[in-house]
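ugh ok fine here u go
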Amino acid sequence: MGNQRGFTLIELVVVIVILGILSAVAVPKFVNMQTEARVAAVEGLRGAIASAAALGRSKCLVSSTTCNTGTSYSASSGNTTVIDGETYLYHRGNPIAWNVAGRRNIIDLIDISGFTVQTYHSGSYERVFTKDGAPTPANCSVTYEAPSGGGNAIITADTSGC
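structure:
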């Protein structure tokens, strides 16, 4: 009989046990990285929306239009201003986050890929952006709300379900 080479059963079991331990350590870290990535995406979108809203509000405050004082967001009421050649609508000095009468909304200035935009509900001045792929999308979201009484827009992030 020739000299055969190979692994013994004990060597194979040891290798399988080591691979099992490594995977038990690596999988939770990988899952945690996905959570951290979703949280970072939500916080990034919140910052981008806040910047776009601040840009829109600043443009409104220095413009000669009535976008800062109007309580209606209709184009006929004059609550508009122009940014880079596009007309945007306002509500009490804040850019609105939904399209009305063919006008652009302030969210058009940023990239919201990876998020689902919830529909605008009548009587509310908010828009919710939920993160695609989150375990609980409703709790992994950014909310933009133009205040009904004036002041700055309220932009919040909920990362409890990311």
